[in-house]
């Protein structure tokens, strides 16, 4: 085989007893090693195939590294639970070396030991790798942190935890473990920004749902199938339950109890890099929840249940059957039909804006409940938010509430507590 000139990185055979190792398909196994141009750390990945293919892959990895688009291969194994304590020790040593005040490093070391690592364990993220964390994950980590004496932490402490996480991930970028800091472009506050995007009206949602229900998808060969009412029912269901799309895709028929008007959320479907995965845990620690099945969603549930039963699927959002195993409808398929329905409705002047997504239906649910006078802590529980503070921070500015009903209820409760014999009306 040809070799690169001495000094140039080249694929190295994986050897055992003097022979090159092979993978399960009989292909030669290689080590691809080179030095990261920024961090100067040695990076190693593994490859199976011909030498020429391995050389091309190595050249590709080096080119990405030069563009700052590749991270150290160790990020595929490094977890935040393991990295944070070692970072805290190094940060302390560096702070002492430059004569920094004790409070400078004690704040971050305390955040790691008292809040970050315990919260990772409580969330079940001990084995979650650093290169898989998103800003939403880190926000959830800071928002769910608890104290030993007072479970609810102040905003200033949560802001301090966020500052520590920001420093840890900046260090991960500097060391080449990840390519980009999830905090990049985000404000310093640990709370989310208020909702500023467009929230459609009920009429607009019904218009889009009707457009989807009468749409006949094009099949292979250019023919058109029958209109699928279930597509419109999916839009109405999402709008009146506030579920994340991934949570709805994981719902089974048994999770929706029409007799007791209850929806049980215990799983979610994720799609990353074209790979679909059903996880036993929802997005947040409060994601596993029970919420009421509103009367407005019952008709949609009936339509979805009928289709699923006829298709032989146990998923509420029934889709294809692959290898004899039923699956829920693909996110890409649902989103494609949704975008087409919005575009058609907007071009026909039936809706005011086309700038909304499937997730916007969740915003409609939250704002509708809050405007109806439902308490924020109850809406937060039904949405699966970690804390009511998230619900208030996101939707508080969008809701103009009439507190007449709340005042009347509170007044009656006070009257009965002071005078148990007072008339109850």
Summarize the structure.
By secondary structure, the chain is an alpha+beta fold. The chain contains 14 helices and 12 strands.
What does this structure look like?
- With 425 residues, the protein is of the alpha+beta class.
- The protein contains 14 helices and twelve strands.
- A three-stranded antiparallel beta sheet has the order 1-4-5, with helices on one face. Strands 6-7-10 form a three-stranded antiparallel beta sheet, with no helix packed on it. Strands 2-3 form a two-stranded antiparallel ribbon.
- Strand 8 (268-272) and strand 9 (275-279) form a beta hairpin.
- The longest helix is centred in the N-terminal third of the chain and has 22 residues, at 102-123.
- The model is unreliable at 1-6 (pLDDT under 50).
Radius of gyration: 27 Å
Shape descriptor: globular
What is the CATH class name of the largest domain?
Mainly Alpha
Q: End-to-end span in angstroms?
A: 92 Å
Roughly what percent helix? 40-55%
Number of strands: 12
The CATH topology of the largest domain comes to hpI Integrase, Chain A
Which helices and strands occur, and which strands form pairs?
Blueprint (H helix, E strand, L loop, with lengths): L11 E2 L1 E2 L2 E2 L8 E7 L6 E7 L2 H16 L13 H18 L4 H22 L11 H9 L11 H20 L27 H12 L15 H13 L3 H5 L6 E2 L4 E4 L2 E5 L2 E5 L9 E4 L2 H17 L6 E5 L2 E4 L2 H17 L12 H12 L4 H8 L4 H8 L8 H15 L7
Antiparallel strand pairs: 1-4, 2-3, 4-5, 6-7, 7-10, 8-9, 11-12
Helix pairs in contact: 2-3, 3-5, 4-5, 6-7, 6-10, 7-9, 7-11, 12-13
């Amino acid at each position: 085989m040809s070799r690169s000139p001495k000094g140039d990185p080249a694929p190295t055979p994986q050897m055992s007893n003097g022979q090159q190792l092979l993978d399960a398909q009989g292909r030669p196994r290689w080590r691809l090693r080179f030095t990261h141009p920024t961090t100067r750390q040695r990076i190693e990945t593994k490859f199976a195939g011909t030498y020429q293919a391995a050389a091309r892959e190595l050249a590709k990895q080096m080119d990405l590294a030069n563009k700052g688009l590749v991270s150290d291969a160790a990020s595929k194994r490094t977890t935040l639970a393991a990295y944070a304590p070692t970072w805290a020790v190094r940060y302390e040593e560096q702070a002492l070396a430059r004569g920094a005040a004790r409070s400078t490093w004690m704040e971050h070391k305390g955040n790691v030991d008292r809040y970050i690592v315990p919260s990772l364990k409580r969330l079940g993220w001990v084995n979650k790798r650093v290169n898989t964390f998103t800003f939403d994950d880190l926000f959830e980590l800071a928002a769910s942190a608890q104290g030993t004496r007072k479970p609810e932490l102040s905003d200033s402490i949560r802001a301090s935890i966020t500052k520590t996480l920001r420093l840890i991930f900046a260090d991960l970028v500097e060391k080449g473990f990840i390519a980009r800091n999830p905090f990049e472009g985000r404000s310093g506050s640990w709370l989310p920004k208020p909702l500023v995007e467009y929230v459609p009206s009920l009429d607009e949602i019904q218009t889009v749902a009707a457009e989807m229900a009468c749409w006949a998808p094009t099949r292979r060969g250019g023919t058109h199938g029958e209109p699928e009412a279930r597509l419109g029912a999916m839009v109405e269901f999402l709008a009146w339950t506030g579920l994340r799309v991934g949570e709805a895709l994981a719902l089974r028929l048994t999770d929706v109890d029409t007799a007791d008007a209850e929806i049980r959320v215990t799983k979610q479907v994720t799609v990353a890099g074209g790979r679909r995965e059903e996880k036993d845990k929802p997005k947040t620690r409060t994601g596993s929840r029970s919420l009421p099945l509103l009367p407005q969603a019952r008709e949609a549930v009936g339509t979805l249940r009928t289709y699923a039963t006829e298709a032989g699927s146990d998923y509420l959002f029934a889709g294809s059957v692959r290898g004899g195993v039923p699956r829920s409808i693909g996110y890409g398929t649902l989103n494609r039909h949704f975008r087409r329905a919005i575009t058609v409705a907007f071009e026909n002047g039936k809706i005011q804006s086309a700038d909304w997504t499937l997730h916007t239906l969740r915003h409609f649910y939250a704002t509708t409940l809050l405007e109806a006078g439902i308490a924020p802590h109850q809406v937060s529980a039904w949405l699966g938010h970690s804390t009511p503070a998230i619900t208030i921070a996101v939707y508080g500015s969008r809701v103009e509430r009439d507190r007449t009903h709340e005042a009347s209820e509170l007044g009656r409760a006070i009257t009965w507590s002071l005078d148990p014999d007072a008339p109850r009306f």
